[in-house]
Amino acid sequence: MSTGQQNLSHLNQSDSNRFAYSFLPGLLFIALIWLIHALAYLTGADLAWLGIMPRSFLGLVGVFLSPLIHADLKHLLSNTFPLLMLSGLILFLHQWRGVRVLVLVYILSGLLTWFIGRHAYHIGASGVVYGMAGFLLFRGVFDRDRGSLAIAFAVLFLYSGLFYGLFPEEERVSWEGHLAGLVAGLVAALIYGKTAKPASDGVDKTLVQASVTQRHMSSTFIPYYLHYTVNYTVQQDKHSPGEINYTITQDSFPGSAPTKSGYTASLNSKKTPPQPYDSRRAK
């Protein structure tokens, strides 16, 4: 039988794997845009016509294709690292909800650029980058918890230079696409904000996982020379004491021996009555 510390180590390893895999979609997307840029460079093809042409019906194609097209190597390099980092953070922190955030930012930033942009082809994934940065920033402001605020300040610190791109300084820079991306991030933060907690009807249930428990020795439940693991659920009622049900799992037996009935006990450090151990139940 594995101990609680081993289970906790397994959970930490699982979180580490999930963190690494969160960056895989962004890495694949970056590989795709680098492949397209390399092919365009080798063949001399001009793919700018696949960008967004504002208020043109055919220009709507660019909503889906413009993030894949970049003007030059500098343009591509400036978007590569933010795409990888921001998409990985969103997917790790928000999992499947993060997928919906990325899809919304991708499409909405393009549509807004189509509405407000100048009459020129707008290309590049900068709008998506601004959208992801905006989502993390506004989400931290709206949630106001320590974790979200820390992420928001990190984004503000690392990518503060991005916000200079919101102003029309250079003719070849699509500041409209940047602004559209930031607005898309704001909309995503509003739509996929913190979900309201369901009403608990006066009952607060806390599940203590077996993975964070440790082995114990006691002569109260089982022979003193045997180790056992206690898995328990604590259900606390605001108006009456909680009910504590124990399930005993020994290292020496493959099964578990739950107590015959739950005991009513105060959660303020009062001891529960001892339960006699029947070794036949664990075999």
Automatic annotation (TrEMBL):
The keyword Magnesium does not apply. It holds the Pfam family Rhomboid. Its main location: membrane. Residues 251-283 are annotated as: Disordered. It is found in: Membrane. It is a multi-pass membrane protein. Keywords: Hydrolase, Membrane, Protease, Transmembrane, Transmembrane helix. GO terms for molecular function: serine-type endopeptidase activity. Residues 62-193 form the Peptidase S54 rhomboid domain. Residues 251-272 have a biased composition (Polar residues). Signal peptide: none annotated. GO terms for biological process: proteolysis. InterPro entries: Peptidase_S54_rhomboid_dom, Rhomboid-like_sf, Rhomboid_protease_S54. GO terms for cellular component: membrane. The chain crosses the membrane at residues 20-40, 47-70, 76-94, 101-117, 123-142, 149-167, 173-192. This is Rhomboid family intramembrane serine protease. It comes from Pontibacter burrus.
